[in-house]
Amino acid sequence: MQEKQRSDLVKRAKRRETDAFTELMQLHMKDMYRVAVSILMNDEDAADAIQDAILACWEKIGSLKEPRYFSTWMTRILINKCYDIRKRNQRFTDLEGWEEPAAEDHYNLEWKEALCVLNEQQRVVVELFYGEGYRTEEIARILKIPKSTVQTRLWRARQKLAGYYADGYRSCQGI
Fold first, then answer.
1. How far is CA 98 from the centre of its chain?
2. What does each C-alpha distance from 10 to 1, 16, 28, 40, 67 come to in angstroms?
3. Any idea which fold 1-97 has?
4. What digits encode the pLDDT tens for the residues 71-104?
5. What is the mean pLDDT of residues 119-123?
6. Which residues contact 92 (CB under 8 A, 6 or more apart)?
7. How far apart are CA 159 and CA 161, in angstroms?
8. CB neighbourhood size of 88 (10 A)
9. Read out DSSP for the chain?
């Protein structure tokens, strides 16, 4: 979809046109899923975060000043919702369990296992950079951190991933 069409959808959604908002969310659903899973490492929690983020976006879309930044704005809301869910879950358990992947999720299994070697900050930056295609400046703006911090996290993540693959794909539990 062209940028002008996307911008028109955002403008229509700001006027509370539900069809335009629904189409926007459908366009971003895969990207939202990848970001949420990179933070939460759990499909059910990721789905909850996405649902919460969609509701928050609908409620707050009037506050979006620049339609071209919709994706950045929406991703920031999603990241905040993921952090909220993680905080809530930490009250119940300190253990991080591994879930059995759904049948349709097998293609993501290797990527998820590789992401396990990264800490959360690195996972988010890697997913935004490689999965979503954001530039380092955009990631810095989304995460509200300096560009140099984004670059450092990317560099360290690449080092860890290189070691992971060099060691023959050792499982996260063994690392």
1. 19
2. 13, 10, 12, 28, 6
3. Rna Polymerase Sigma Factor; Chain: A (1.10.1740)
4. 999 999 999 999 999 888 776 554 445 455 454 4
5. 89
6. none
7. 6
8. 11
9. --HHHHHHHHHHHHTT-HHHHHHHHHHHHHHHHHHHHHHH--HHHHHHHHHHHHHHHHHHGGG---GGGHHHHHHHHHHHHHHHHHHHHHHH-S--PPPPPPGGGHHHHHHHHHHTTS-HHHHHHHIIIIIS---HHHHHHHHTS-HHHHHHHHHHHHHHHHHHHHTT---GGG-
Asked if 36 contacts 115 with a C-beta cutoff of 8 angstroms, the reply is no
Answer for the pair 74, 53: CB distance below 8 angstroms, yes or no. Answer: yes
Question: Which residues fall within 8 angstroms of residue 140, CB to CB, at 6 or more apart?
Answer: 146, 147, 149, 150
Domain ranges of the chain: 1-97, 102-175
Cβ distance 125 to 154 under 8 Å?
Answer: yes
Give this prediction's pTM.
0.66
Joined together, the tokens standing for residue 132 give: 């979503």
Fold held by 102-175? Arc Repressor Mutant, subunit A (1.10.10)
